[in-house]
Amino acid sequence: MDSECPADNRVRMEKEYKNKQEPIYYLASLTSEEEARAKRFHVQEKGSNQARGFIYKEIEAPSDHVWKVIRRFDRPQAYKKFLVGCCLIRGDGGPGSIRRVWLQPELPGKYSIEQLELLDDENQVLSFRILGGEHKLKNYTSITSVANRTLTTGKLGSLVIESYVVDVPEGNTEHQTNVIVHTLIRTHLISLEKITRFEQRQSSQVAASSSDSTN
Questions:
Q1: pTM
Q2: What are the C-alpha distances in Å from 70 to residues 22, 119, 124?
Q3: What digits encode the pLDDT tens for the residues 23-41?
């Protein structure tokens, strides 16, 4: 589990989406169906010295499109901007697989060892936990789910929910820990939205070009 990964896998991703900052939009409320889904997949028990929470965000892309990005346990750096690389050190990307991810230099740490606990394609739910590494997020467990939703604009989009439980680091309060983790998740969800919308536009352009060429 502590084996090193090939150096050529530690390639920094191009920062294609860094030139434009977009605010994250909080929803006024979840529908009763979304609340039931959150209770089904995102209720996690926490210990006496742990913090927990969840964040949700609308994305202007269907859930199947968003799920294709999230489910890639071997490529979290595709949308998680605080990561610079990843490689599998056990498994093929299915449940039980273990990955090593490298953190951005500005973060307090170097790498994390993480195991995929759940990959549910039918319900579009992924869960992983941190096994070790050099960082401050000890005993961290994350659950991410995606589902279709009618957006406030009336378009078909999706709702992404990410929840977590983590130890409170020594010298920090539960509130401080929540603030740190929420900042990480918010950044990742903003990046996820940009990437999925960009890819969806590309797919639409390709489909339009193909249709024009056959007419």
A1: 0.82
A2: 20, 10, 9
A3: 334 454 788 999 999 999 9
